[in-house]
Design a protein that fits this description.
Layout: H1 2-10, H2 24-27, H3 39-43, H4 45-52, H5 54-84, H6 92-96, H7 99-125, H8 141-144
Helix pairs in contact: 1-5
């Protein structure tokens, strides 16, 4: 999801509900009065950068935590299997470079990428009444990319 968030900042697809509009007029932000701006934004510097990128940072941190949890859980399972079969146990660093660990990880990542890709691509051409992921059902094809 972190990659998804970062890519939607720069990439655009005509008709995608997930894409920003192509019109430059829509790109010009309307200035917010200073007293209504969040304190972190007004402060500037590193706080402003953290605030402006907080969604990406949160998703990347969640990915790191999930990856570490997967590595530790999978390694613990491998240790239990090694003990049960009277085989030598792998260290964590050796297990982290083991092809079976990466095979497990990539299988999970492939399913996630396929789900996100499907949502983005199918939302360009297909509609779902009252869905925030879809354009209005009566929108012209030129607006929706169909």
């Amino acid at each position: 999801m972190g990659v998804y968030v970062l890519l939607t900042v720069w990439l655009r697809q005509k008709g995608s509900a997930e894409s920003r509009p192509f019109d430059d007029d829509d790109e010009t932000p309307k200035p917010t009065p200073l007293h209504l701006q969040p304190r972190a934004w007004r402060h500037g510097g590193i706080l402003r950068w953290l605030y402006a990128n907080s969604l990406s940072i949160a998703f990347i941190a969640l990915f790191g935590l999930c990856f570490a949890g997967h590595l530790l859980g999978s390694w613990r399972k491998a240790l239990e299997e090694a003990i049960a079969h009277a085989q030598p146990a792998m260290t964590l660093s050796a297990y982290a470079t083991d092809p079976s660990f990466w095979f497990e990880s990539f299988q999970n990542w492939q399913s996630e990428f396929l789900a996100v890709f499907s949502l983005i691509v199918l939302s360009i051409f297909l509609h779902q009444k009252d869905s925030p992921q879809s354009k209005p059902v009566d929108a012209p094809h030129g607006q929706t990319g169909g």
